[in-house]
Amino acid sequence: MTESSALSDLRRRIAAIEPPPSIASTCVATGHAAIDLALGGGLARGRVHEVFALDAADASCAAGFAAMLARRLGGGIVWLREETADRQGGQLHAAGLVEIGIDPDRLILGLLPDPLAVLRAAADVVRCPDVGIALIELWRDPRRLDLTASRRLALAAEESGVTAIILRIAAEPSPSAAQTRWAVRAAASVPLAADAPGHPALEVELLRQRGRAQGGVWRVEWDREQASFRAPALSGAVVSLPAGRSAGADGGARLRRA
Questions:
Q1: Of the N and C termini of the chain, which has fewer Cβ atoms inside 10 Å?
Q2: Residue-wise over 154-172: b if at least 16 C-beta within 10 A, else e?
Q3: How many Cβ atoms are within 10 Å of 24's Cβ, its own excluded?
Q4: pLDDT of 37-84, one tens digit each?
Q5: Which SUPFAM superfamilies does the UniProt entry name for this protein (predicted)?
């Protein structure tokens, strides 16, 4: 499939997504009191946010955090990634996304040949008000993702109300127009009764945010039932988020590709 036909197919699929929730409320609380305090109430909708796995080994953790943010914000999700990401980091695990609380029927996966194609598709997706979340996955440090490109995405997000989450894997932070920038690592989770695996746990660091000086490092758990973050009570064994498995594995869940 050519890049132009892929974008056309992506536009058709976006048109079929349920419209996003009202953006009358400009921010959404994460559920974690300390993080919401640092953010001044919650994560802003209609803005660009960056999520970094500074080490490739934390790719699944960062992807999980980005997916959790998308679930918390609500609306249909368009996830854009390079075709090589399937080989580098594994296919998205549909059953793992379901465990986070994401309905695969409300997620469109766009696989594109290179970073430039990802950014071109992202520009179209972020301008489309029928999308809730544009999740833009890029590996390492593509030259095309510079301050100018991030400003274009930020302006498009503000105009459309679409929230853009740029997932950066094995990358170094650089100047951008993002509202917030996060680094994510694996953390210990608290075992449940009978020593069952606990809730997904992460260490998240707010590296910077526009207009506010507050940052911080927090250990968080994800509560699927409440679609919310919370502070863990105790330390326990490290539990990794699902990654590197076929999108068709477990439970019959499937991701729509474009």
A1: N
A2: bebbeebbbbbbbbbbbbe
A3: 7
A4: 999 999 999 999 999 999 999 999 999 999 999 999 999 999 999 999
A5: P-loop containing nucleoside triphosphate hydrolases
Tell me 225's DSSP state.
Answer: T
| DSSP codes of every residue in 19-42 | PPPP-SS-EE--S-HHHHHHHTSS
Type of residue at 71: R
Q: State phi, psi for 143 to the nearest 5 degrees.
A: -60, -30
| Alpha helices for 135-197 (secondary structure H) | 147-160
Neighbours of 197 (CB within 10 A): 12
Q: How far is CA 78 from CA 17, 167, 205, in A?
A: 9, 13, 25
- Contacting residues for 52 by C-beta, under 8 A, at least 6 apart: 62, 168, 171, 173, 181, 182, 183, 184, 207
**pLDDT tens profile 123-170:** 999 999 999 999 999 999 999 999 999 999 999 999 999 999 999 999
Domains of the chain with bracketed CATH: 3-19+26-242 (3.40.50.300)
CA 228 to chain centre: 14
SS3 113: coil
Q: Which of 231, 193, 180 is nearest to 69 (CA)?
A: 180
Distance of CA 123 to CAs 8, 96, 153, Å? Answer: 13, 28, 6
Spatial distance between the Cα atoms of 56 and 135, rounded to a whole number of angstroms = 18
Write down the pTM of the prediction: 0.83
